Amino acid sequence: MLRHEFQPGRLVAGFFVAVAGLVYAGDAGGLWDTPWFVIIPIVTGGLCLAGAAATVAHGIRKRRGPRVGGRADGPRTVDPGGTRASEAGESGRG
Description:
The chain has 94 residues and is mostly helical. It contains three helices and no strands. The protein has helices at 8-28, 39-64, 85-90.
């Protein structure tokens, strides 16, 4: 059972921010010497790739249609009268 939908844009963004952190950690630990401006292309490039991944994923989800296997009673939408939309359709049945 999925608790939330997969969001590849966040995964890519998190990966590149983690890489930037590792680069700084290696510099702080004395493994290598990193100029301060090296982080800028790592983070901005990662954010651009994350945006592209999120856009592609959104396009795929939009083309597929609604997700199957959601909640049994569907989403709880409320109409202006205060009753749930699912209950409003059931009240007319006999």
